[in-house]
Amino acid sequence: MCLRQVHVGTGPISFYWQTSMPVILAATCVVNVAAGPRTTQFMLAPEPKATQSTNMGTSAVDAGRSGPTAAHRRVSSQDLPKSVADLAALVKVARYEIAGCVLTTILLLVICIFAVASKQPASDERRGRSVLKTEPGSRCSSSSSCQSASSCAVVAEATRIRHCYRRLQPQQDSASKEYRTLAHMLPLQDLERNLCTKLPGNDGGRCQEGPAGLLEEQAMVHLQVFGSNSIDMPPRENPWVRLLQLTFSGVFNILLWGCVMVEVALIQIKQKKQVLPHPWTLERVLLLLEDPDCVMPLILVLVIVSTAVLQWSTEMQAESAMEAVQEMQPTEPIRVVRRGSTGARLEMSIDPDTLVPGDVVFLEAGQLVPADVRVLHCTDGMEVDNSALTGESLPESRTACVDSAVPAVQARNVLFNGTAVLKGKATCVVHATGNHTFLGKIASGLQDSRTKSTLEIQVEHFVHVIAFFSIAVGLLSLVANLASRQHHSAAEIVENSATALFAQVPEGLLPTVTLSLMIASRQLSACNVLVRKLDAVETLGCVSVICSDKTGTLTTGKMSLVTLAVPAKSFSQASSIISGSPTHETIPKPFQLLLPTGENDHGVTENLKTVEPLHDGGKLLWQDRADDRSTIALCMCGVLNNGAVLSCPRRPSRGSQFQRRLSVNEPQSRHSVMWTEQWQTIGSPTEEAILQSCAEALGGPWRALQLRAEYSKAFEIPFNSENKWMLTVHKHIDAPATGIAYHMLLKGAPEMVLSFCTSLKETERLRIQSHQEQLMGKGLRVLCAAGRPLAAAEVRGGILEGTCARDATFPMDEFHFLGLFGLEDPPKAGVDKAVQDARAAGVDVIMITGDHPETARAIARRLGILPQQSLLGEEASATACRVLQGTDVDARQPPGEGCFADCPPEVQTWWRGAVLHTRVFARVSPIHKQVIVQAFQHFGQQGLGHVVAMTGDGVNDAPALKQADVGVAMNLRGTDVAKHAADIVLLDDNFQSIVHGIEQGRLTTDNLQKSIMYTLCSKLPQVVPAFMELAGVPLALNAVQVLLIDIGTDIWTAITYAAQPAEEALMQRRPRHPLVEKMVTKYTLLYSYCYMGVLQTTLCWIAFLTTPGVWDLMGKVRIDTPHDVHIHRQAMSAYYWTLLVGQVAAAISTTTKTQRVFGPGGYGLPNMLLNSFLVGEVLLGLAVLYWQPMQKAFGTAPVPTTRLAGITATALLVICGCDEARKAMVRRHDNQSK
Questions:
Q1: Phi and psi dihedrals of 870, rounded to 5?
Q2: In which band, very low, low, confident or very high, does the pLDDT at 23 lie, cut at 50, 70 and 90?
Q3: Cβ atoms of residues 760 and 754 within 8 Å
Q4: What confidence tier does 328 reach under pLDDT thresholds 50, 70, 90?
Q5: Which of 128, 645, 1053, 1167 is most buried (most C-beta within 10 Å)?
């Protein structure tokens, strides 16, 4: 009654109550069943008579046997014990009921404690926040006290702050997890007004003097409105509760625990017929362990618990993504400036948690950025490390300039929470804190619950099928036992029915799944793939789309200079200049080498000349390629106008060759030195590629060091996204004698550099642009170089200054064109083959990159991702959308949390076409990646959705990695957050490892299917004997023998399938979709039950019925004579042995699905683990037949050896032969269909 009155709602307690009730009720039933009929009769006893009050327990039993008329009488006060002796007698008789009640109470108590312990506070108040909420229309009462009036004023101020702050946010869904803000593009006056702060502009944003920032009272209100500057952690489930869930919850676990409970109950019933020592003595424990009926439940419990513990430990290791995000937040005090109540300036250091929007903060090198801030002022050359967010190892420059043409995540005047300041100082204003920062938006994406893996879906489907089938077989067995001619006791009926149900449950499924995934994980680790979530291995086998980054995954991630384009001019003296032994007359004047044809020639009178390196075994060799003045000038520009650092193996002494003129070279340097551990370049990939190649072309690293020493750098404007060029000004030791004080070198985007070449004619400009387009069409990144001599008189004020062309103190025109650099990030070796293998396996590869569309298209064609030309008959619209840009994605993003169903019809139509035809997404930001993954999961495969694998390396990739069915993180370039959010990690950042993982995933699924097929083969011959008893046939297989086959042999053999090698055609099949093709299909059931099961059943009954004397037992109600018992046991032994050999043959046959096992080109028996277990299975069967203790335990008798050999040969030949014939027909059908 108490259970009926409990209200079960929602939440953790409700969940644990519902999942644990089957276990609690089963445990209570076991205790009650173990009590025997005496306890049950005591429960139904009528009121005892007065003459029977001397022995309450005995009288109650006797009264209960007298008749059932008073069995349901309400208990009155006369039923209560009248003395201590009566109470002791009652406790003795009702000890099982008391034990059951105590056990139930303890279980309920433990469940409630774990439920409460695992429930984390979710409100802002419990997280230490105090967030003011104002209702529309709320107003202050005129009769309220001063305190109430003050509260109303605070509420009014909070409302004003919210209203102003909304102006910083573009129109979007408030619950959207996409990061958008207008803080980077607003002028200071608007930013000051929207943040309700003070930003003085008279000192250029430095805020070093005078009042600035928020008022102290405002800061307190801001803290209440926006909350503390911390990222909320999702509520974590108690790990011990999770272990209980994995152990006891789920249909399959409940089914297995039910079998255990029934077995325990049957053991208790059997033991009541025996005289055993006290239950707690060692002697009784040893006697119990000798009984095979007691060993079977222990083995099953061990399998369940060990599988749960293994899965639990794996999950605990994976729950660390949010902790990695939290570790990125700074903890050191931050220097800020605020205003006091009188408006005076207050400088202070506060904890990062108390920062609020509107605070003015001061940052310097070595500090972590505590929130998302807008730069008000920074020193020249300020750099930040955004690798924690983007995965890019190179520093990024920052400036205070407003750039409204780029999104906030690409703006140069914004610093993000969790990044580090590497160089310079900055004054900034906080515009976003806590969950509203870029890092907070990423963290909110990590809190979403991950969708079920394909393995979970498949196992759940199979469990439901097998649970329904097992219960049906158990009920039918119960009916068959009740209708049998042979009279069975109640305990025997329950035992036979429970055994029939238990026989249909594949007990080895869970350990087989876990061990298969562990073996696959170990094999992948040998291929530099770290598996963080075991079920991701199986999901890899279902992947139909791989969304891959280009840089570092499909390509090497290291730029290479592959071509130079220079004006077609050559000079005979060029060879002597490079040879290292020129005469005095051939030594050029300072800066003369930097002019292509002379000091006064600025034009390009002929077509450009292309200079390419030599190829040597896949390596690019630039030695001796600078054979004319134009090439020399361009290579010198590549060495001098370069931000990369060149490190030398030793420091030259004064007066050495390093200090001498260019004409004096170190002997044999151009042939003896390449880029090794001694010679290194440090810088961006582009700068390193140009420096290394140009240095080689000029004679080697030593010559590059000579050039940099001889042409020292006097001034530099570093590259930035606004200028899109880099300028260096050089001086020479002999320059004063020539009248030219400096020489300027310019390198950058061709359209920007050519704009400074004002002396170029229009035809010359078109000729250069045409050559540039040709190089870009080959997938090359093109940079342009130009130079200009600079006299001292041309420098205003005599000081070289400036950050761009507008504020430079020297002229930025009349540059002469030097040439073009053509660079590429070459594809990794073997990636094109991996793409072909993926396409052959039915897996589409999608390239996602931030590069230019033409560059991405060229690389995609080289790798085979895009066809070399448009397919015959393909529509123009399909060809046009093969390459899309991030702007196309941005214009069609779904509302809310990726709900494409709410999109307009035209947007859905566009996405269907993109999913069907697009293979390259260019100019894509990491924010778009999650949308692209969701689109493939929603619209792929005609609405079923693709199974998507996604690669990523930055923190901003983490939501997309978690959204994908398989998240793949990079190890070399990846951040910790990305690695924690991913399912697998590529230790070498190699795309080929993903394809190998797909093969391992398919192999895992294949082996699981084979294991299930093998396990189910014996279920039909195990259950048929129970129904044959209806026809008067003696029992052919007893319950103990069924348990011996299931737990003694089949479960271990099934586990060994995890080590099975792959078949030949594994990667030639289409990927299996988990919603269409289940792991256990109707063909699997037909194979196991209707084909292999029928073969085994037929052979078993032939062996049983051909046993001498067995026909004389037909129709007998009882088999009790020694002779009849011996014949019956011999027949059962023949049935058992035939089934055992049939399972050995089934194990051999199910190692392949279509490939032949024996003969030329056969699969063979490569799994030595399986072979050893098959041998052990045979040896165990022989022990059961011929070893007397085993005969007594399992009810067997020895079978003549000649008969045993005949049964063995017949079963192996028939089963293996039939299956080989079946596979031959399947192969013939497949070949004809092709």
A1: -60, 140
A2: very low
A3: yes
A4: low
A5: 1053
